[in-house]
Amino acid sequence: MHHYHRLRETLGTHPIGAPESEEFLEILKILFPPGEVEIALHLDFRLRKVSEVAGAAGVPEEEALKKLESMADRGSVLAKKIEGEMAYALLPVYPGLFEYPFMKGGDDETRKRLARLWHAYYMKAMAAELARANPPWNRVFPAEEAIPEEYEILPFEVASQMMAKASDIALANCPCRISAQNCDKPLDVCLSFDGAARFLSERGMARMISLEEAVEVLKRSEEAGLVHTGSNSAEKLVFMCNCCPCCCHFLRLITEHNYPEAVAKSSYRASLNSGECIGCGVCAEERCPVKAVTLEGETAAVNAEKCIGCGLCVSTCPTGAITLVKRGNYQPPPATAGELVKRIVGNKQKSGIGD
């Protein structure tokens, strides 16, 4: 079987999935060029020491190391030192194969070609694959300025408190906006944590920052009208994205692909006091990323079911007519990333969804 078909099949065993597509095979040819793809075929999603990979591939260890390092520097595979020896693993499609090469930068023509291919793959196959996850992979965190004080606030609901759990934080440019180029929102707002942060910073795809700097990124993102989304588990964060509805692959599941539950909503929803609304239209026209707020006559109206609870409408309302209230049917996130994956895989199996 063709090397790239075999690699695609292996990537498809990850819970994120990797649906068949000619565009995805072309992406793999860029990220795993001939001479390197043969080595990648001996990887899976567990870290394997270079000596083990070299033995399985039947090549000298020095040759395997050189090719694996080339792939790691490109953002095609994960790398980590274990017991003094380098080890490598495949990356899932998200977060990984899509994001990391765009974070790396590099040749402009290659970037443009990858952007075209990823767009086609997303529209043809990957959007539907991402939307099948139940529970969703990502969840919304409300803008902290908008969180009301009168409610009991759990730590997993607050982005800054979740970030404070991390030992390392890195900041990178947003791969979705680099790829799509549909808006002029800030680029340097993509946060990663702990192992992911260390890998990205070591490979020149991100830079390490302090918690205080990360909190400033959140504030800057809120001002720009970006939605905080992150890992859908209560334990810890792997990443924290600051998303626009025109570029983000996950928010576009809602805004373009009609999958309203594809991103887990926050525990809040917007509520309007029509008596205080002056009908300025800022919430509806500039701030709501999913068009849950509309202007009807001289006042705004909120579609509670459509609202994702990001709070962006609250922070710019000149009269305080919009506030966040607790969502009545809120389902808390899975306790850990492992539990999230277990539930997604289990629900896929129940639905008869496979690679």
State the secondary-structure class.
alpha+beta
CATH class of the largest domain: Alpha Beta
Compute the number of helices. Answer: 16
Arithmetic mean of pLDDT: 95
Strand content: 15-25%
Secondary-structure element string:
HHHEHHEEHHHEHEHEHEHEEHEHEEHEH
Helix content: 40-55%
CATH architecture of the largest domain: 2-Layer Sandwich
Whole-number count of domains: 2
The CATH topology label of the largest domain is Alpha-Beta Plaits
Which strand order do you get reading across the main beta sheet? Answer: 4-8-9-6-5-7
The total beta strand count reads 13
Poorly predicted runs? none
Instruction: Tell me the overall shape.
Output: elongated
Mind telling me the C-alpha Rg?
Answer: 21 Å
Biggest sheet: strands, sense, closure? 6 strands, antiparallel
- The N- to C-terminal Cα distance equals 17 Å
Can you characterise this structure?
- The strands form four sheets. The chain has a six-stranded antiparallel beta sheet with strand order 4-8-9-6-5-7, sandwiched between helices. A three-stranded antiparallel beta sheet has the order 1-3-2. A two-stranded antiparallel ribbon has the order 10-13.
- About 40% of the residues lie in helices and about 15% in strands.
- With about 350 residues, the protein is α+β, with helices and mostly antiparallel strands.
- It has helices at about 5-10, 20-30, 35-40, 50-55, 60-75, 95, 100-105, 110-130, 160-165, 175-180, 195-200, 210-225, 250-255, 280-285, 310-315, 335-350; strands at about 50, 75-80, 85-90, 140, 170, 190-195, 205-210, 225-230, 240-245, 270, 295, 300, 320-325.
- α1 crosses α2 and α2 packs across α8.
- β11 and β12 (about 300) form a beta hairpin.
- The radius of gyration is 21 Å and the shape is elongated.
- It has two domains: about 5-90, Orthogonal Bundle (Arc Repressor Mutant, subunit A); about 130-340, 2-Layer Sandwich (Alpha-Beta Plaits), CATH 3.30.70.
